[in-house]
Design brief:
The protein is mainly beta. Helix content is about 5%, strand content about 30%. The longest helix has 6 residues.
Length: about 775
């Protein structure tokens, strides 16, 4: 650099330059950019090997100058006059756990043996104790935080117990060595804010899960409070006697008593008053007049009629709901022990036979005037003393000795066997796999028609009247069905014939003019009623009850599906084996009866059902039932008949397996639940292997005004193998055998008579005839 011009000297001096060439330069021998502070050189331009920065304390070592990082090596690298200013602090580590104790330290550049750079070990004799170590259950401070065993996992799970009830919340459990005093080793508290809720509490009716089992109030079987209640479906305040009791917190739809025998009728329960009407209103098993608690205001005033002459004893008043045998609606009888003495009215007895005629004379004291008899002894011929109501009737003489209006034909008392071919009015041939049933008047001509079906898809309708002699009906129509039918019934109130085809789970409906009958519709099962159509019952117009394998379904012919109607589940019974309709038993009008001979392992059972739509099980929807004895097979056939002439039907049922295959027929007059064979008023027993009871019916076959009992026995061999028989009994009570039969119908040709029995008027004369079925023939039999 050149010196400035003289004109500039003043400026340079003023600027503090001093000597224009007095700038100090420092020699930099080691070339590190820093010169030694000794021996500076003043010059305007940098001398070679000199720098402006001074301060190098060792200009022979380029690694030493201001700004260098001080190292622990005994050298002042940064020329600050201090040698090794940042010497590390080392901690003694006696247990070799990588952490040293603060009680023994040293500062040296290199790590001494047995020392580490981390301090804070609170136990330098235990290599498992150091900062950050896992706290152990040992009574020591393992993690060096001045706390002992805090949070150390123990052998048991502890739970916080905020409400102090001894139970902790499940989701808060921890393995602890020394839990806080508010913790518990027992879990299960579903609400840790309430000490009245825990697993040891009783379940109460409060809408809360008191015992922490996940169930609240009545849903918890351990409920301690509330009500043991029975279902009350009809809302009458009384529970169903056949219902299942449950503990509950509400009595809505339930009751604390179980005295309701009909939980569908609010007027029927154990606290009700018995009134006339045919029902057991107070559920005591007694109906109407049989119940001493009957409300007399609902009954009729009646008097005892012990002699059955229709006149009551004035000294024996009573209340009655209905007039039946044994009571009368008047008190006019002058002697209630003698049926030939009635009211205080008298007739002249011209022929002296004890029966009178002519104009009646009113008495005043029930004292018989001379030459007169009581009006109850009415003579049919007061000029002939051999003819009067108490005379012995002589058969076949054309004279009505006993004034019955009927002269019975004579029968050979020593030969009750009657060959059907000799007494039947007509006989019809059919195949052995077919059956013949009456189906009412389909064409409206006043005659009952017959249907022949089974074995094939062919249906034959035989239109009445029946022929007088063996042969065929004048009019017979054939209809092709979808499959072989096993049941047929006329739809009540209509000219339609329903036929059950269980192999296809359907019912086909046939109708049309006499010579144009055809299938007009069908009702099928959607799968829930297998083998639908095994039996059929016709109810009100358009309604059918269809038996299937395991139950019953009521539906309308307008429906296309059987199971859209009302289902009765048979449960352990198959109620489609046999069916009987109609019937008016004492206190009870029955719609139909079904049976299952295989019920309860072969004991068999019969159930009486009401007409119409019913939903439920066979056991709880029936209005009465009969259960057979083990192995009896009760329910092979059924019917209704008024055998004792009291105006009420008896239920007839057969058991073909009872008594070493002898079979039996029974009659019950009082319908109720769980009747047995011992409750029957009449029992008919067969001979071993007769299996009587394949069919049963009641009919007045001799025209005496009283019904006889008819029983079919297809295996009876009275005149040869497979002759079969129909036994006819006049007995109405007690136990009888086939030897007591009044008549026996059979077929000498061996056609297994008795497969079926029907009481039907086939000639349209207004009197009942018999339709007797055999193996391959049917007979139309008028009165015997």
């Amino acid at each position: 650099m050149k010196c400035p011009l003289p004109i500039l000297l003043t400026w340079a001096a003023l600027a503090g330059c001093g000597d224009p060439c007095d700038t100090p330069w420092y020699p930099d021998v080691d070339g590190d950019g820093w010169g030694a502070t000794t021996s500076p050189v003043h010059a305007c331009e940098a001398p070679e090997g000199a720098v402006r920065r001074a301060g190098d304390c060792d200009d022979d070592n380029r690694a030493i100058h201001p700004g260098r990082v001080e190292r622990c090596d005994g050298v002042d690298e940064d020329c600050d006059g201090v040698v090794d200013a940042d010497i590390p602090l080392w901690y003694a580590d006696a247990d070799g756990d990588g952490w040293g104790t603060t009680r023994l330290t040293t500062r040296v550049c290199d790590v001494p043996t047995g020392f580490v750079e981390r301090g804070g070990d609170c136990d330098d004799d235990d290599d498992a104790a150091f900062p950050g170590a896992a706290e152990r259950c040992n009574g020591q401070d393992d993690d060096c935080d001045a706390l002992v065993d805090e949070g150390a996992p123990g052998d048991a799970i502890w739970y916080p117990d905020l409400d102090g009830d001894g139970f902790g919340a499940d989701d808060q459990g921890q393995l602890l060595c020394d839990p806080p005093s508010t913790w518990t080793p027992i879990a299960g508290d579903c609400d840790d804010t309430r000490n009245d809720i825990s697993p040891t509490r009783f379940e109460l009716c409060n809408g809360v899960d008191d015992d922490c089992d996940g169930l609240v109030d009545a849903d918890d079987p351990t409920l301690a409070t509330g009500y043991l209640a029975w279902p009350d479906a009809d809302g009458d305040g009384h529970g169903a006697s056949d219902g299942e009791p449950t503990w509950g917190c509400s009595l809505v739809g339930a009751s604390t008593d179980a005295i309701d025998c009909d939980d569908e009728d609010p007027d029927v329960h154990g606290a009700a008053t018995e009134v006339c009407g045919g029902g057991d209103e107070d559920c005591d098993g007694l109906v109407d007049g049989d119940d001493p608690t009957l409300d007399p205001t609902s009954a009729l005033q009646a008097w005892a009629d012990l002699d059955g002459d229709g006149f009551g004893d004035p000294d024996a008043p009573m209340s009655a709901c209905v007039l039946h045998a044994g009571i009368a609606a008047n008190a006019l009888d002058c002697d209630d022990t003698d049926r030939w003495i009635g009211p205080d009215v008298w007739l002249a007895d011209a022929d002296g036979d004890g029966a009178g005629a002519g104009p009646p004379t009113q008495g005043t004291t029930c004292t018989r005037p001379f030459g007169m008899v009581n009006v109850a002894s009415l003579d049919c011929d007061d000029a002939d003393r051999t003819r009067h109501p108490r005379a012995t009737e002589l058969c076949g003489d054309g004279i009505d000795q006993d004034c019955s209006g009927y002269d019975p034909p004579c029968r050979d008392a020593f030969d009750p066997l009657q060959d059907l071919d000799g007494v039947a009015r007509a006989m019809f041939e059919r195949s052995a796999d077919q059956q013949t049933v009456s189906v009412g008047d389909l064409d409206g001509d006043g005659y009952t028609d017959l249907a022949v079906f089974g074995g094939s898809s062919d249906l034959t309708v035989l239109f009445g009247p029946a022929p007088e002699s063996a042969g065929v009906f004048q009019d017979a129509v054939h209809v092709t069905l979808a499959g072989p039918a096993v049941s047929a019934v006329r739809i009540r109130g209509r000219s339609e014939l329903a036929l059950g085809i269980p192999t296809l789970d359907l019912v086909q409906v046939v109708s049309g003019p006499r010579h144009g009958m055809a299938v007009i519709g069908e009702i099928s099962s959607s799968g829930t009623t297998p083998q639908a159509g095994r039996t059929l019952v016709s109810h009100d117009t358009g309604w059918l009850t269809v038996g299937y394998a395991g139950g019953l379904s009521s539906t309308t012919t307008a429906s296309e599906a059987i199971d859209v109607g009302c289902i009765v589940d048979g449960q352990s019974a198959d109620p489609s084996h046999a069916v009987a309709t109609g019937g008016h038993l004492r206190w009870l009008s029955i719609g139909y009866v079904v049976s299952d001979p295989g019920f309860r392992g072969g004991s068999g059972g019969i159930w009486l059902m009401e007409q119409g739509c019913t939903i439920g099980t066979l056991q709880n929807r029936s209005v009465a039932n009969v259960i057979g004895t083990p192995g009896a097979g009760l329910g092979e056939a059924m019917a209704f008949a008024d055998l004792d002439g009291d105006g009420y039907d008896e239920l007839l049922g057969t058991a073909t397996d009872i008594g070493m295959g002898a079979g039996g027929v029974f009659a019950w007059s009082e319908p109720r639940y769980d009747l047995t064979l011992a409750d029957a008023i009449l029992g008919v027993m067969g001979n071993p292997n007769d299996a009587i009871g394949a069919s049963v019916a009641g009919a007045d076959v001799d025209g005496d005004g009283e019904m006889e009992l008819l029983v079919g026995a297809t295996t009876a061999d009275l005149v040869g193998p497979d002759s079969g028989a129909v036994y006819v009994f006049e007995a109405t009570a007690g136990v009888v055998s086939t030897a007591d039969a009044d008549w026996i119908l059979l077929d000498v040709g061996g056609d297994a008579v008795g497969t079926s029995l029907e009481v039907v008027d086939l000639d349209g004369d207004g009197t009942e005839d018999l339709l007797v079925g055999g193996g391959s023939r049917d007979w139309w039999v008028p009165g015997l």
